[in-house]
Amino acid sequence: MQLVGITALGVGGATIFGAMLGFLFKRIPHKWNDAILGFAAGIMLAAAILGLILPSLEAGGKNGVWITALGILCGALFLNFADRFTPHLHHITGMDKEAHKNNQSLDKILLFVMAVAIHNLPEGLAAGVGFGSGDIGNAITVAVGIALQNIPEGMVIISPLLLSGVSKERTFLIASFTGIVEIFGTFIGYFAATASSSILPFALSFAGGTMLYIISDEMIPETHSHSYERMATYSILLGFILMMIMDNYLN
C-alpha cells in the first residue's frame, strides 16, 4: 500500500513538475516539442502493451483474448465518450465574461486541458490496476511510463493558457488539477483490482485501451502536424525501446 501511495504521488506529481518546467520554457520550438511528445508516446505505447495488455491476456486464461479485446475497445470508447461531452468550464480561468467572449481561442485551450484531465484519470487507474495485479515489475513499468510522459504533458499546458491571458497562479492551479486527478485514479484502480481478481483481465485491458486511444488520437497526430514527422517517429521508437529494456530488467 505504501508503494501504491508513492506511485500515486509520482505519476500525479510528474504532471505538476512538467507544469513548473513549462514556466521556464514557455515557447518550446515545434521541432523539439514534437520530439519530446513522440518520445513520451513511445514510452506510453510500450507501457500499455507490455505492462497492461499482455498481462491481461495472461490473467484471462483460455478465453482471455476475448476479455482483453473487449476491455481495449471499452477503454477507447470511454475516452471517446468523455471527450465528446467535456463541459466548457470557463469559470476556472478567473477571467471576466467580456474578456473571455473576446478570446475565442480559450475555448479550444480549455477543451484541451480538460481532455488531459479526463485521460489522466484512466492513466491513474492503469497505474493502480498494475499494482493490484500483484506483478510489481509490470506495475513499475506502467507507472514509470506514465510518469515520464506526464512531464511534457504538464509543460504543454502552460504556454497556451498564459498566452490567452490566464494569470500565472490560475494556470499553475489548472495544470496541477490535471495531475491530482491521476492520484485519485491510482487509488481507485488499485482497490478495484484487489477487490475482485475476476475483473483484473478486463481492468488491465481497459486501462491499456485508454492509453492506446490517447496515443493515436492525441499524441501522434500532434507530433506529425508540424513537418517534423521523421524526428517524431524515431523519438517514438526510442521511447518504446527504452521501456522495453526497462521491462526486461524489472521482470
What's the arrangement of secondary structure elements?
Layout lengths: L1 H23 L5 H30 L4 H21 L12 H5 L3 H28 L3 H28 L4 H28 L4 H24 L5 H22 L1
Helix pairs in contact: 1-5, 1-6, 1-7, 2-3, 2-6, 2-8, 2-9, 3-5, 3-8, 5-6, 5-7, 5-8, 6-7, 6-9
Q: How do the helices and strands follow one another from N- to C-terminus?
A: HHHHHHHHH
Strand count: 0
Q: Which range does the strand content fall in? A: under 5%
**Poorly predicted spans:** 87-104
What can be said about the biggest beta sheet?
none
- Helical/strand content category: mainly alpha
The number of helical elements comes to 9
**Shape descriptor:** globular
Radius of gyration, whole Å: 18 Å
Count the domains: 1
Level of helix content? Answer: over 70%
Calculate the mean pLDDT score and round it.
Answer: 77
First-residue to last-residue Cα separation: 20 Å
